[in-house]
Specification:
It is a single chain. The protein is α+β, with helices and mostly antiparallel strands. It has 2 domains: about 30 residues; about 230 residues, Umud Fragment, subunit A. It has 2 helices and 14 strands; from the N terminus they run αββαββββββββββββ. Strand 5 and strand 6 form a beta hairpin. About 5% of the residues have low confidence.
Amino acid sequence: MARAQSGGTVMETVKTVVYALLIAGIFRTLFFQPFFIPSGSMKDTLLIGDFLFVNKMAYGYSQYSCPFSMCTFINDRWFGSEPDRGDVIVFRHPVNGTDFIKRVVGLPGDRIRMQNGVLYINDEPAPQEPQPPFIEPYELQGQGGDRDYPRCSNAPVGQGGECIKERFLETLPGGATHSILNITDNGPGDDTGEFVVPEGHVFVMGDNRDNSADSRFPQRGRGVGMVPMENIIGRADRVIFSSAGSRMIYFWTWRADRFFRRIE
């Protein structure tokens, strides 16, 4: 009798675990997808080691955010908005299939160009208000085999020294504001020709302007080019967890001040 009860308890536990995994899988498929920040292209909005969940319902479902027919059924009835300027999005690279995270600065029909490090949208400059500089230690960042040193406007910097970048508050048409960084003047993306954003696409840039492969650079040159709406996985709304260490389990490297921080 005791043996039968023990077997029943094990089966109930197995069922509970299976149901939990199924619910977690459905939740991940339909609502949120975890994303880990591997590079410094979005500093200081997002830091290497930030962990967040991508809101897959923000703009409706795509083939990359939810490839099942059920999502198409839902999409046709409740969702289907477009990103706004200033949204931080995760998307599938149009060529290599890697997941990227950048900020939307251009919508369909917009004319975009960079001049002397200033973003112009439809011939109007996006105002940049000087802010205190962004300072971080000059040390290896990242996890696993992708660790590297940050780039600094005050280079060369010794190990453990202060790595400084200029910081500005940029305002986009519509009033969205966000922080951007500048490492060097006359960088390869500081002056460009004019881009016209085609229908069904967005123009994206990293907030760390001199350290971002984005829509300013062609896909054949390892850039991003224009991002099709259908490649968007979702919107990044909030940092959930953050670690500055080479391993997440190193609790002494956790950035508690970034836990649950809203992404602006």
